[in-house]
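Onboarding guide, step 5: your first structure request.
Type a short instruction followed by the sequence, for example:

Predict the 3D structure of this protein.
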Amino acid sequence: MNPSSAVAPAQPATRQAPPKGAAHESAPPPHGGARRSAWRSLASASGMTLCDGHGRSVLDATAGSLAVPAGHSRAMIAAAVGRQLGEWHDSTARGASHPMLGELTRRLLALAPDGMERVQFSTTPRGSLAQALRVCVATHAARGEHQRTIVITDQPASAGLSLATLRPGSNGRRVPDNGLGAGLLGFVQLPHPRLAENRFVKGQPDHGDALADEFTHIVELFGAAHIAACVIEPVGTANGIQVPPRNYLETLQTVCHEHGIPLVFDESSCGMGHTGAALGALSLGVTPDLLVLGNALTNGTLPLGALLIGERVCQALGDTVGAPADDSAHLLYPAAGAAALAMLDLCEQEALFERAQQLSPAFLDQVFALSDLPVVRDIQGFGLLAGLEIDSGAAASRHGAHVAEVQRRLFEADLNVLARGDTLLLAPGLVMTPQELDQMCRTLRSVLTDFS
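The system replies with structure tokens like these:
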């Protein structure tokens, strides 16, 4: 078995250098000398536009690979980082905390669903995901359940989850050897097939009981007493867009609670407005036990991870996690914290989460209008996220290529999208204007028509 309307325009952004790696991870270098040179010399970005410094502009439909939801090069965030760098750029000493730690913690908990009580920080989103697993292991160890070393997840290893040896939990206990190695976690991947009856469905599809049943079967197969955590993206982005069917997350939550399994939402990609609300947990109405946020917290300015911890876990651990002098305090670099606070200010001042909710219906309508193209095999969408599954066989018969070729052609037509598996992933920034939405969909139709 392999368990495997109208939207008010946002304030214009001030141009500055794009976050490191944001553009370069979004598409392969186009072929051809001039285009190749232009790609390698992208010099600036502003709002939803990438610029090469020589007159060429590319519309970024990826929000800087899902890390820049407020648009590129926001002056407010840059100014906050600059001020903080002028005061102190280093991390705080272990056991001490920067004054902004409490403010950032308070602001994040105000965004979160009811029931979240504490926050831990890390220098990277992957670090926060590792923190989440350590907290889960520590929770079970506090109950004497050292045998819980299996993690059920919907994420591939490339998304940050793989066989990994954990350091001691916050209570200082190691997981005993369970046959996998001392403290070694085993990962079981949840299957998430594309069901034929859910093709071209906007939002959450109705059919998904079989997926929920498969999760229950996996729990029974491995034994609930051996499962340390369930880690999922509430709206999947690792392999295109995977929108959870109705009642699927609710079933996972119920099963996890019945068996004492912490439910972890990894929102390092889909969080901070992409689902039409501040967090996917809010959009979908399901509160996890732990929730991970990533670089979108700083609008891609600096790396930062945050782990929000729910009351059920806090009760199990008592005061061992999340205390003011907790081990994560020194991992909040002051400049990253300043960027995160400025990002939250920006979201409030420009009502960006509300804007995303208003823009989502028009975005989904225009993207789903592309379903008449033969090369488009399926479309899934939720909030400001959409995935166009490309019929690679049809594309190859015409052009001898697959989805990467479609992505390259779109970039040559001045539209930047992500390629995940056989899917083109669209994740525009919350500052997208109706005119930019029209431009994005016109370019998609023009290029995809050539492959149909």
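Each response can be followed by summary notes, for example: Confidence is low (pLDDT under 50) at residues 1-39, 162-182, 320-327.
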